[in-house]
Structure formats: C-alpha cells, structure tokens
Amino acid sequence: MPDPSVWSCPAPLRDGPVVVLGHGGGGALSAELVSEVFAPAYGNEILSGLGDSAILPLGGTRLAFSTDAYVVRPLFFPGGCIGDLAVNGTVNDLAMSGARAAFLSCAFILEEGTELAVVERVARAMGSAAAAAGVVVATGDTKVVDAGHGDGIYVTTSGVGLVPEGVDIRPQRARPGDVVVVSGPVGLHGVAVLSVREGLEFGVEIASDTAPLGGLVAAMLGVTRDLHVLRDPTRGGVAASLNEIAAASGTGVVLTEEAVPVPEPVANACGFLGLDPLYVANEGRLIAFVPREHADAVLAAMRAHPQGAGAAVIGECVAEHPGMVVARTRLGGTRVVDLPVGEQLPRIC
Amino acid sequence: MPDPSVWSCPAPLRDGPVVVLGHGGGGALSAELVSEVFAPAYGNEILSGLGDSAILPLGGTRLAFSTDAYVVRPLFFPGGCIGDLAVNGTVNDLAMSGARAAFLSCAFILEEGTELAVVERVARAMGSAAAAAGVVVATGDTKVVDAGHGDGIYVTTSGVGLVPEGVDIRPQRARPGDVVVVSGPVGLHGVAVLSVREGLEFGVEIASDTAPLGGLVAAMLGVTRDLHVLRDPTRGGVAASLNEIAAASGTGVVLTEEAVPVPEPVANACGFLGLDPLYVANEGRLIAFVPREHADAVLAAMRAHPQGAGAAVIGECVAEHPGMVVARTRLGGTRVVDLPVGEQLPRIC
C-alpha cells in the first residue's frame, strides 16, 4: 500500500490513494473521480453538465458527443456481447439528449493471443447492432497489448449526432410535478452478466436487455419536444440515475417501489445474491421525466414501441427533500435510496 | 494454440488464428485486420477511405471525426506521457484532413491499484495539451479493471472538428508532380519511448516530438487550400505513411533518403538497435503532398511556424511504379521502401 503522505488528490471517499473497482462503477466514487480529478485537470465547464452526452455548438448545429469504454466480462453473455453492448451504449447516451446517433467510432484494445475468430464475432455483432440502430461505424483504431495484459478485448465507442430543434433534455430540467417513467423491466443486464460469470443458474435464462433506444426516443419526441430528462440507468441502475437527476436539478424524487417492473427471475436472483434490483445495470432501458400534462400520451407512445412495451410510471418529481430520492415501500413506509458508492457488480459493461 | 481448422478469418498474413502484436502496429497486419475483419463487419464504405479521420456530412457541415486508443509503455517518457500523447494524437488526426479540433472525448480504462496521483498527473497533462491545442475535453468515461489486467492506464481519445470550406485533403489526392515535405526531424518519439523502456542511454536524452499540429496546418492552408495530402507518420513511421498514400492514390513516391532529417542521436540509436528511422513512429510531425507551384510558399510558411521549423523537401510524387515507394540512397542507388508488416517497436503509442 502506497504511503498516504504522498497522496495529492482530495478524494474523501478513498480507501487509499489508489484506484479501486468502485471508481469505474458509476456511483459516488466515479462522480468523485470526475469532480476531483478530471474536471479540474481539463479546466472546463462542459464536463460538469453531467449528461450522458455533451451538447456542443459546432458549425451552427448542436452536436451531441459521447464516449464509453467497455470492459465487460465475459465477452459473450445471454442476450449479447461486448460488441452490440458498445454500439447500443453509445447510441443510447446520444439518445438521452434527444439526438439520433449518426456516426460511431470504435477503438479496440486487443490482447495478444486472442482468437481472431472472436474479434470477428464481436465486430460482426457491432455491425449488426449499428445497422439495427441506423448508425454508421465511420472510423476506428486497433491497438494490441502483450498477452497477460488486457482481457481479450476492450472496446471504446464514441458517437456523434444532432440534437433536434427545440429539444432541451438534460438532468437539470427535472421539475416538481414531472412524472417519472421507466421504459420496461429493470435489472436484466446486470443479472445476465453475473449469471454467466459466476456459473449461476436461476431456473430460467435471464438475457441482457441490451438494445438501441433512439427509435423509442424519437417516438416520445413525436408526442412532445418538451421532455425534461432522459437517462439510461446503466451502471448503478435506476437508483444512481435518479440520484444524479435529483442532485443536478435540485428537486426530490419519490419512487413507488412496487411500481418498478422487476421480472420475477431478476427478483429471485437478486434475493439469492443479496442485490437490490434498483442498483443493477440496464442496457436497453430509459428513465424519463415528463411534464404531467404530456405523461399519458408519452406513456401510450412508449407502449406502442417495441422498446417501450413494458413502460410504467414509477414515481414523481417533488419540491420536498431536494437532491434526495425516497422510495415508498410495499409496506407503506419510506426509505432513502442513496447513490451507490461503487458498483455491486463490477465490470458489467 | 487453437486448432487452425476453426479459423474463419481470411487473413493471409497470419501466423496463426490469433491476434499478434503486429496487428496493432499500423503496418500490413493492421491494414489486413481492417480490410478482412472490421470493414466487412461494419458493412460501409467510409472506413475504407484510409484517412486519419473520417469526413462526414452532418447538419450541412463536413465533420471530421477520429479516434485512437493509447497503450504506450511506460506511461511517462522523455518529452511527454500517455496523456498529452492521446490529446495530440487525435488533434493531429483531425488536422490531417485540414480540420481544427474543436472537442475531444476521453475514455480511461484504469487498473485497480493504480495510484490516483498517477491518474491525476496524466489527466493534467491532457488538460495542458488540450489548452495548448485549443481544444476542449467535452465528455469522458472511466472503467476500472481488476489488478493484473490492464497496465495502469489505457486511454482512448476521440475528436471532432470542422473541415474548412474548399479544403479536400486525403490520401487519394496525391498527384505526380506533388512535392513531398516533412515538417521536421523524424524518429524521436519511437526512440524516446524505447530508450526508457529498455533503460538504454544514448549519450544525449532523446525526447518525444509529441505536439499538436493544428496550428501548423492552419498556417499551410493560409498559403493555399489546395494541399493534396497530409499525414502524421505515427506507427510505421514515414515509410508506412508514404506507402499508404502511394497505394491509395495509385501514384509512385520517390524519396531522397539523405534529405530525410534524422537527428544524429536517433541515427546512432537506430544503428545500435538495428532499426530503420524511416519506420520509427513520430507524434508531432506531418508529411505533406503539395502541388509543385505552391511548394516553396508552403515550405516557407512551415518554417516560420514553431512546429515546422525543421521542414524539408524529402521527395516527390511520380507516375512511375504506381503504389510503390522507392528511395534514392546516399550511394546513388535505389531501394524499395516497403510497408512494414507489423511494428518494429510495439506499444509506442
């Protein structure tokens, strides 16, 4: 363990002055890494916008720009693989600002000795996912690291798209009165990855929900351009996303616990493993904060779309307890839903 | 070794059906991976454009979009570190299409146990390099992999910028009669990294040339918008870049070997190590194919810029031996300068 006296980063949640798995978990440790290390180093305000993608003025357009690294283990899991996950993840980050992904880049870090047939299978999955999402993989790069470093394949995708006229979707726009909607059942991706990693079986196969959400968002924008917030609850799950929105907007969120659609196999697996489904990652779901007057119509449009067939109202945005997420439990009580510190399930994306 | 009978990729240069270090070297193996695996998988024509960045029609603009993964070892070397290298590399890829980098994304893959002070030092180097290049780091992501995987820090940068009106710079535009110019001495980056990795000393410290080239390109475009080709000779060095341009344009290139500026310490180190400086990576140099009528003025503008002070004419583009690069040697003979198969120096960027 390094000497704490040489420590220079003011990171209050640290165990020690080193990177821990939780720094990649999308929770409080990740947020701290951004706020204490990266944002000061890069010296700009855009990073602190906290959206899934940055909205940038460029050539008279509003460009949405996003990047994500993927280190999921194993590379292949029920419902998908690192390739389609990497395409859908970046497509979805762009969609969460209302942008339709236009072009993707794709950078591979391959481990020496990885079978080329595996690389090809992942690349083909990326191609199929890109075609399904209507996005073009336009540029890429490949580096190779020595055997024993890396894990076969890491891939980083970045994406660009245009934000439509009149659309302004970001976490800061949540308002008391907004209806909180989720587009479908939660917890599938994290449990699917964990089940193959640990060799667990839960009676029925649980498949990842990985899917592109650009079409669903377009359908929702067809009802109203005045969607306030969209967020795909990936690392840290629904709980992390709602906490980030509450913090960014200075509003409170009340979650009706029994309204959250948790498939029975996910609930069983989470019970067995001691996980809370609210904190488990999803890769094909979104949370929307919708002005109350549009909520019914938006919900109907979502349910008419294949990616939103299981859409449900799960809560509302309130003026009370600003920055805090509170769940109404099945038993009629309430509990605070915290931002997770790290990640219950490391390396699920 | 996997069974060759399960092999499905038609990669004629393979040693076996697995990834080798040369697949990340920027030479023939890299090109084969793109043409045989990635391009068919992604199913589009843009990837085959072979430029350092893709030029994409978006919202009435021409967007330049590029990505690069960085896996250099060690993380810090004379003249720079993985952080400024990653910023400059992507800034330069955009500059090679004439675009000025506007925004960057930055995705880290950190190894559990890496000192946060090291992460901070790399992030600060990125911030300084971005400020120097006039580009904004607008979005990012961080993942953490288990100790023993990864190598401390891998980083992938992507960048966007606009191609100015009237500019059309790409490898296909090389024409017989073009003058081939290099912006300064070659071989510094590769030798600098190798020297610290292997603990070698060559009498004088050799520092990487890592630098942003957007300003130099803007100065060149100030002379004429009709630059034909720009290329930064990174992996595979000057030899790989000239071969790619010759192949893409169907022209021949004649290189005057003694005109290539090779600093004496680089020449000595290469002699000692059995390397050819033409194949060693540079990270702050460009090669330009300039119409003969503009060559003197472009060369003067380059020499007036800090990044082009050592600019020199190193050859010309010819109609003979299409697709081939031929060097006139110091002894008056000629030799073919081939595309390298892999990389003499793995993991230098």
TrEMBL record, chains A, B:
Top-rank taxon, per record: Bacteria
InterPro entries membership: HypE (IPR011854), PurM-like_C_dom (IPR010918), PurM-like_C_sf (IPR036676), PurM-like_N (IPR016188), PurM-like_N_sf (IPR036921)
Entry-linked Pfam families: AIRS, AIRS_C
Domain PurM-like N-terminal: start-end pairs: 52-163
GO BP: protein maturation
Signal peptide: none
Every PurM-like C-terminal domain range: 175-321
Family statement: Belongs to the HypE family.
Stated name of the protein: Hydrogenase expression/formation protein HypE
Record lineage: Bacteria, Bacillati, Actinomycetota, Actinomycetes, Kitasatosporales
Chain's gene name: hypE
